[in-house]
Amino acid sequence: MIVLQAQKINKSFADQQVLHDVSLSIKVRERVGLVGVNGAGKTTLLKCLNGLMAADSGEVSFSTGLTIGYLEQLADYEEGITIWNAIMASYSGILNLRYRLNELEAAITRGGSELEKNMARYARCSEEYELADGYACENTARRILSGLGFTPEEYDRQAQSLSGGQKTRLNLACLLAKSPDLLCLDEPTNHLDISSVEWLEEFVKNYPGTVLVVSHDRRFLDKIATRILDLRWGNISSYEGNYSQYLVKRAANDLAWQRAYDKQQEYIRTTEAYIRRFKAGIKSKQARGRQSQLQRLERINRPRQEKGLALRSLNLKQESGHDVLRLQGIAKSFDQNHLFKDLDLNISKGEKIALVGPNGCGKTTLLKIISNRIAAD
Length: 377
Known about the structure:
- The protein is α/β, with parallel strands linked by helices.
- It folds into four domains: about 1-65 and about 180-240, P-loop containing nucleotide triphosphate hydrolases (Rossmann fold, 3-Layer(aba) Sandwich), CATH 3.40.50.300; about 80-170, no CATH class; about 245-295; about 325-370, no CATH class.
- It contains eleven helices and eleven strands.
- The strands form three sheets. The protein has a six-stranded mixed sheet, sandwiched between helices. The chain has a three-stranded antiparallel sheet with strand order 2-1-4, with helices on one face.
- α5 runs antiparallel to α6 and α9 (about 245-280) runs antiparallel to α10 (about 285-295).
- The N and C termini lie far apart (about 60 Å).
- The model has no long low-confidence stretch (mean pLDDT about 90).
């Protein structure tokens, strides 16, 4: 069953057309990755599909009763809202049912002429509550918060005091808790450490609904995607499989496109040469016929090359020695938050180093110490 369908979506900003006759459909339980270079229009398309931005033309339709959740990359929270308040607000429907059940329990205890009606109401409300998995919502909230790197000690922390990255993680947690039929995620692995990304991979793979995700994280897309939508130059192409499979298929398609274009260009050149040679001679009739064929020919667009990242070569005034960096006994704390102490590190010439660790462990702080932007204790 198709849960979302878009037909001929167009969107321009000033004189730049970002989306050109984009059509797509997404089926129930699919995990679809939307990919493309920066500026291709992925977030624009996602917002048009969600109704958060108006397309210049085209139609978007959904299956009846479909609920949609959209993760924006920016988020903010009102003063006084804690992390726990924020995620529990995602269960507002369940909490309303719980409040109604408490009211009906009190009414049944009092008895009176409405006793039988209240008992029937309680039975219906209780069934609805169980179907919504109301008894498990607190445990589910804790599981989601834990998976995204929040500890129980942080639950009472004011959401407004969180960093931008922490707010984005909390926003993701709240959206996952709502469990919409169609989950739309824009760069969900931003601000997640490795363990949180791995947790999110499993969550998305086992999600009961449909998922549409914009991501540059190849490993994440390899783990979760069942189909890839490739947005290039305003047009969209669909590839079954995960990201690695998409790369192979796209390369084959691009090669076939280039070969078809080259073959047609050769045909055009030879035909034009024939026309020039014989248009005034005894074969002028054949030349006019070939001219008509050229005019009716559906031209293959010239394959375009995506721009790569241009890196300037670095001219070193002086070669370094074998030991490029040596740290000994480095310590750093912020108030009572002790990030690291007695840290030793040696980096040799030619090494390529990845610095990894959970959120908040001090990776950025260490880089700033190494680059002399802040001082170690």
